[in-house]
Amino acid sequence: MKGPPGVEAIASRLPPTGRLIGVDLGAKTIGLAVSDVERRLASPLKTLKRATFGKDAEALMAACREYGVVGLVVGLPLDLDGGDTPRAQSARAFGRNLSTTTGLPVAFWDERFSTAAMERSLIEMDVSRSRRAEVIDKMAAAYILQGALDGLADLYHKDRGQ
């Protein structure tokens, strides 16, 4: 899946190694995932309750400090044909504000099917409905982040002529 512009733009601003955080913005919660230092694998981290932007940014920065994060990937909820939605515009604004507040590079990644894919996967694993509700946002953040990590890996391979 090709992501919207953004991941390519931060690739040159990232150090050779360092963790990224994936962000799945919901109306009531924010799902977080974190990569390994080599940026190969995304793992679900936690779910935050939404508050004001200031409090959301503060909670995200605490996670960034704890994990030594060098950049963020924010899920972009596009419509089915790839166009912007009001939620996508809100995610872009959140990402821009987050970049200004934190000084970290922020990229966007197409998240159209992230929650649905994770929901199906959890159902296949026979995870109860209540447990799914607890973990779905951080699982969706991991799905978003893994897509971006794969996209970055593809860029790095192209740059090396592989």
> DSSP helix count?
5
Mean pLDDT: 85
Question: What is the overall silhouette?
Answer: globular
The N- to C-terminal Cα distance equals 20 Å
Helix proportion range: 40-55%
Class inferred from helices and paired strands:
alpha/beta
Query: In oligomeric terms, what are we looking at?
Result: single chain
**Radius of gyration from the alpha-carbon trace, in angstroms:** 15 Å
Name the strands of the widest sheet in spatial order: 3-2-1-4-5
Largest sheet: 5 strands, mixed
Helix-strand string? HEEEHEHEHH
The low-pLDDT segments are 1-5
Number of strands: 5
* Beta-strand content: 15-25%
Q: Which properties best describe this structure?
A:
single chain, 162 residues, alpha/beta, 5-stranded mixed sheet, 5 helices, 5 strands, 49% helix, globular
Could you walk me through the main structural features you see in this protein, from its secondary elements to its overall organization?
- The protein is α/β, with parallel strands linked by helices and 162 residues long.
- It has a five-stranded mixed sheet, sandwiched between helices.
- Strand 4, helix 3 and strand 5 form a beta-alpha-beta unit.
- The N terminus is likely disordered.
